[in-house]
Design goal:
The protein is of the alpha/beta class. It is built from ten helices and seven strands. The strands form two sheets. It has a five-stranded parallel sheet with strand order 1-2-3-7-6, with helices on both faces. It has a two-stranded antiparallel sheet with strand order 4-5. A hairpin with a 2-residue loop joins strand 4 and strand 5. The longest helix has 26 residues. The radius of gyration is 20 Å and the shape is globular. It starts with 10 loop residues before the first helix and ends in a 22-residue tail after the last helix. The model has no long low-confidence stretch (mean pLDDT about 95). The protein binds thiamine diphosphate and magnesium ion. Magnesium ion binds next to strand 4.
Length: about 325
């Protein structure tokens, strides 16, 4: 497991990270309330994975790098500039949703201006996409990195092996982070993967594999930062395994009581980064009760305003259904 060092970590940055993690959590919690009250159709959660996602986002350069996120990456897309309001518009499937204009399920992130690659529903398809962007960056001699994420269950798909092998062979500037939350829907880790860790798979692709505590945003920040430096120095790709735990059911349509003990969930929540990171910040005198309250109030207001805006926003017009689906040609004047 990679070690945490607070060297070069400013209090200011650590607080910004905390605020973003908290924002991701509160957006997610609000979405569950909206779903259970019949206002939005679906939620797929980031809860338990915020530290890994936000730690990674801070280590990348969100003004030049490309990210190919997977459906749980609310923290990562916030870090790459997607607004709370935009995420809520997507949850309500409204016309103004930047991801798909309200056409796709939530969690299918995509925003060109922030270099968030759009993804499709079959898991792991984002890996070859990210590797392709990294190949283009290398060919164009651009000093940028591409960052792609997926779940540990998805690391059994062919796309993962093909993508990482290609990246290894061609020494491409791509960082792959597997968010190991111990489950693929109802299937626990030991029924999914034969190796003890995901990170050890890296040796087959000729790249370093790093295992990191995904509840520790500073540790994740450091391993991603190091991987990014290697990428832009022409030293090639890295595989990172962030060890987390999925706090919610797979999605709002799943009931996890059918396949895991709630005691196990309770135990995992003792390491909840939203709580443990706040404690660490307080121990380091970077956070006190008053500041914590200020951050909570700010985040609550953002989530409330975004919810209100998105709920009131219009749906897409029926006549726009085929927009962006088929090429639009000039119908001619006759
Ligand atoms: C190719 C493909 N097979 C199956 C599915 C259905 N499916 C959606 S999410 C998921 C589980 C993925 O588990 P994991 O990769 O561990 O990610 P997690 O949801 O745990 O974050 C499955 C099987 C899919 N979307 N695509
Ligand atoms: Mg999983």
């Amino acid at each position: 497991m990679a070690q945490t060092s607070w060297e070069n970590i400013s209090g200011e940055m650590a607080l910004e990270m905390f605020e973003m993690m908290l924002l991701a959590r509160k957006i997610d919690e609000r979405m569950w309330l909206l779903n259970r009250s019949g206002k939005i159709p679906f939620v797929v959660s980031c809860q338990g994975q915020e530290a890994a996602q936000v730690g990674a986002a801070f280590a990348l350069d969100n003004s030049v790098d490309y990210v190919a996120p997977y459906y749980r990456d609310l923290g990562l897309v916030l870090g790459f500039g997607m607004a709370t309001k935009e995420l809520m518009l997507s949850a309500f499937a409204k016309a103004e949703d930047p991801n798909s204009g309200g056409r796709q399920m939530p969690g299918h992130f995509g925003q060109k201006k922030n270099r968030i690659l759009t993804g499709s529903s079959p898991v792991t398809t984002q890996v070859p996409h990210a590797v392709g962007v990294a190949l283009a960056a290398k060919m164009d001699k651009k000093d940028i990195a591409t960052f792609v994420t997926l779940g540990e269950g998805s690391s059994n798909q062919g796309d993962f092996h093909e993508g990482l092998n290609f990246a290894g062979v061609h020494n491409l500037p791509v960082i792959t982070m597997v968010e190991n939350n111990k489950y693929a829907i109802s299937v626990p880790y030991d029924r999914q993967v034969a190796s003890e860790t995901i990170s050890e798979r890296a040796s087959s692709y000729g790249m370093p594999g790093v295992r990191v505590d995904g509840n520790d945003p500073i540790a994740v920040y450091q391993v991603v930062k190091e991987a990014r430096e290697r990428a832009i120095n022409g030293e090639g790709p890295t595989l990172i395994e962030a060890v987390t735990y999925r706090f919610t059911a797979h999605s709002s349509d799943d009931d996890d009581r059918a396949y895991r003990e709630q005691e196990e969930v309770k135990e995992a929540k003792k390491k909840d980064s939203i709580i443990t990171f706040a404690e660490t910040l307080k121990e380091k005198n970077m956070l006190n009760e008053a500041k914590e309250k200020e951050i909570h109030d700010k985040v609550n207001k953002l989530v409330n305003d975004a919810t209100e805006y998105a709920e009131e926003a219009p749906y897409a017009a029926p006549e726009d259904t085929l927009k962006y689906v088929y090429e639009e040609r000039d119908k001619g004047g006759e």
